Task: structure prediction
Amino acid sequence: MYHLAVLYPTRADLADALTRLDKAGIELEGAADHGVSEALYLRDPDGNGVELYWGSAARVIASDLGR
Result:
C-alpha cells in the first residue's frame, strides 16, 4: 500500500480529527485546501501516506444519506 484516504462527512469532523492528532502528538506532513476539498497528510507507523479529508464528495454522500 502506498496511500490511504479517509473521507470525513463534515469539516467539523475533520477538525476533530486534527485536534485528536495534535493531542496524541502525531505530526502532520502537510495540509491543503484544494478548493473542492480540504486535506491533512501524515504517515502511518509503516511509512505509508495517510490522507484525511472532507469536501464535495462528502457533501454528496451526506446528502444521499439524508444528513
